[in-house]
Amino acid sequence: MQRLVALFDALAGLALALLLAVTAAGILTRVLFDLTAGGVDLLLSDAVEMATYALLITVFAAMPRALRGGAVTVEVFSRTWPVWLTTALDRFWSLTFGTLAALLAWRYAEESLAVLARGDTTQDMQLPLWIFYAFAAPAFAAAGFVALRLGLFGAARERR
């Protein structure tokens, strides 16, 4: 499981680097455009779409890492509860999320095939849209795997 999480960590890192590069380039080219009163026009016309899809990939790829230690717990009430109850609730929510993630992986896989058959593309760059659906499917499958494993075996096995 650590290799699976590491693979998605690398993909999230690459997508985040692209997001940061596109954002920085967009800002710098806008400043250059403004400083030269439009004389130097290196504006990235597709920067918003590139940043949008890079963010999508970053979020989906980071899900397995985010779930690895269990879901976020707000301990306003639960810190006074018995350990067995908080453990049971953690496992219940992990199993619930794992099931939901598995269903989403299945639906994204089906939808990627439908989008591929229709030939849908992104609005500005005309990239094949099925690629993003097809990426979401294994990302949700990996997140579901991590969550189901947490739900079945608990967080103790997930320590670094």
Describe this structure in words.
- This protein is an all-alpha fold and 160 residues long.
- The protein has one domain (2-158).
- The chain has 5 helices and no strands.
- The protein has helices at 2-35, 47-67, 75-78, 83-118, 130-153.
Summed up:
This protein has 160 residues and is mainly α. It contains five helices and no strands.
Short key terms for the protein model shown above:
160 residues, mainly alpha, 5 helices, elongated
Structural domains: how many: 1
Number of strands: 0
β content, as a range?
Answer: under 5%
Distance between the termini: 11 Å
Largest sheet: none
Oligomer: single chain
Uncertain segments are none
Report the mean per-residue pLDDT as an integer: 89
Report the structural category.
mainly alpha
User: Helical region count?
Assistant: 5
Q: Radius of gyration, rounded? A: 20 Å
Helicity level: over 70%
Furnish the topology, listing elements before pairings.
Blueprint: H1 2-35, H2 47-67, H3 75-78, H4 83-118, H5 130-153
Helix pairs in contact: 1-2, 2-5, 4-5
